[in-house]
Design a protein that fits this description.
alpha+beta; 13-stranded mixed beta sheet; 3-stranded mixed beta sheet; 11 helices
C-alpha cells in the first residue's frame, strides 16, 4: 500500500476559544486505514460559520485538482483528472476547497441524489463531515461514496450497500508488459499473433502530430459503437479531450499498420498508479487490445518506473466489460459502498477497514 506524509494540525476553535494542538489520524481514500499525520500545518476553521462553496468542475480547474490529487494520491479513478473532468457533465461534478481540503460532489442521475466523495486534504474527519452535513441539510437523500481497496471482489448477493457497477479493477503493471505466466496465456497468444502477423507496425506517442487522425478514427469508432447512452457519452467526451489534449496531464500511444491508425489509448499517472482512461481499437485486427495494453504498459514502465498498478477503471454494469476486466485477473479491486449522509459517522467509515 502507498504511504503518505502526515500533518500535525493546529485547529483554532473560535467557539471554545481554545487551541487544539494534536496529531490527527485520517482515513485514506483507498483503504480507510488510519495513518499518522506529521507534517505541520495551521488551519483556522470556524466550525460554526464556515460553509462549502461548490463550483462546477471545468478544464480551468485542472491545476487546482491536480494539486490535491497528487498531494493526497488515491488509487481510485474518482480522484483523477480523467475520472473527474471527463464525467463532469454526466454526474454534474462540483468542487469546493475549505481548510486546504478538496471536496467533490456529484449527482447520480439514475438514483436522483447527491453523492459526496471522500475529501482530499488536511481537515480532520469530524470537521469535513460537519461541513458536508451542513451542505446537504436540504437534501436528506444525499449519500457518501466510500471506497474500499481489497484483494477480493464484493459478492453482490451478500450486500446491497455496494454499487457493483462502480467497482474498479487494478493490475500489477509487470503483468501487462508481456502477459507472462499461465493465467495470461490466452492474452499472450493474442499479443504474439498481433506482433507476428501484421507487418509495418508502428507505435507513436499521442501528440499534436497525430491528434487529427486519432479524432477521425474516434468518429468512425463512434459510428460503430453507439449501443448505449454511456458509450455515446464517453466517445463524445473523448473527442472533446482530443481537441485540446495538451491541456490535460494525459499521455498515450497510437498503433498504426502501414500508416493507418488501428487503435490508441491514453491515461494519466498519479502516485503509484496509472489510470487507463481510454482504449479504442479496430477488432478486425486480432490482438489489437492486448497490443494496446501491453505497449502502453511498456511505455509507462519506461517513463514512470515507480508505477506499480494499472487501474483499468469500472465496468459500468456492462456484463461483457466485466468479463473482459476479470479475464486479466485483477490483483486489487476498489469496491464502493454508498451510505446516507444522515447516518454517516466515524464508525461507519472505519467499519470496512
Amino acid at each position: 500500500f502507498m504511504t503518505y506524509p502526515a500533518l500535525r494540525i493546529n485547529i483554532y476553535c473560535k467557539n471554545t476559544k481554545k487551541n487544539a494542538n494534536r496529531t490527527y489520524f485520517a482515513a485514506t481514500v483507498f483503504n480507510l486505514k488510519k495513518i499518522p499525520l506529521q507534517m505541520k500545518n495551521t488551519l483556522d476553521i470556524d466550525t460554526d460559520h464556515d460553509r462549502l462553496d461548490f463550483k462546477p468542475v471545468t478544464k480551468a480547474d485542472i491545476p487546482l485538482l491536480m494539486k490535491y490529487f497528487t498531494r493526497f494520491p488515491s488509487r481510485s479513478c474518482d480522484f483523477s483528472i480523467g475520472g473527474t473532468l471527463m464525467w463532469s457533465d454526466f454526474y454534474g461534478y462540483r468542487y469546493a476547497v475549505c481548510g486546504d481540503t478538496l471536496f467533490i460532489k456529484g449527482y447520480d442521475p439514475i438514483a436522483g441524489r447527491n453523492i459526496y466523495y471522500q475529501p482530499s486534504g488536511c481537515l480532520p474527519q469530524e470537521i469535513w463531515m460537519r461541513l458536508i452535513r451542513e451542505d446537504c441539510r436540504n437534501s436528506p437523500d444525499s449519500c457518501a461514496l466510500i471506497p474500499l481497496e481489497s484483494e477480493t471482489s464484493i459478492d453482490e448477493e451478500t450486500t446491497d450497500s455496494f454499487d457493483m457497477s462502480l467497482r474498479e479493477y487494478l493490475y500489477p503493471i509487470e503483468r501487462f508488459l508481456h502477459f507472462s505466466g499461465k493465467k495470461m496465456e490466452k492474452k499472450r497468444n493474442h499479443l504474439n499473433y498481433f506482433i507476428n502477423n501484421y507487418d509495418n507496425l508502428s507505435i507513436e506517442s499521442l501528440s499534436e502530430a497525430n491528434l487529427r487522425e486519432v479524432s477521425d478514427f474516434t468518429k468512425k469508432f463512434m459510428s460503430e459503437h453507439d449501443d448505449s447512452e454511456l458509450c455515446l457519452y464517453e466517445n463524445c467526451q473523448t473527442l472533446g479531450v482530443l481537441e485540446d489534449f495538451h491541456s490535460y496531464p494525459f499521455e498515450g500511444i497510437v498503433l498504426k499498420i502501414g500508416g493507418k491508425i488501428i487503435g490508441y489509448t491514453f491515461g494519466e499517472k498519479i502516485g503509484d498508479t496509472f489510470f487507463c482512461h481510454v482504449e479504442k481499437g479496430d477488432i478486425t485486427y486480432r490482438g489489437v487490445y492486448q497490443a494496446l495494453a501491453s505497449f502502453m504498459s511498456r511505455e509507462i514502465n519506461k517513463n514512470h518506473p515507480d508505477v506499480i498498478f494499472l487501474n483499468r477503471e469500472e465496468d459500468m454494469g456492462d456484463e461483457s466489460l466485466r468479463y473482459s476486466k476479470e479475464s486479466y485477473h485483477p490483483a486489487l479491486y476498489i469496491n464502493k459502498r454508498i451510505e446516507n449522509i444522515s447516518v454517516l459517522n466515524e464508525n461507519s467509515l472505519l467499519r470496512i477497514a
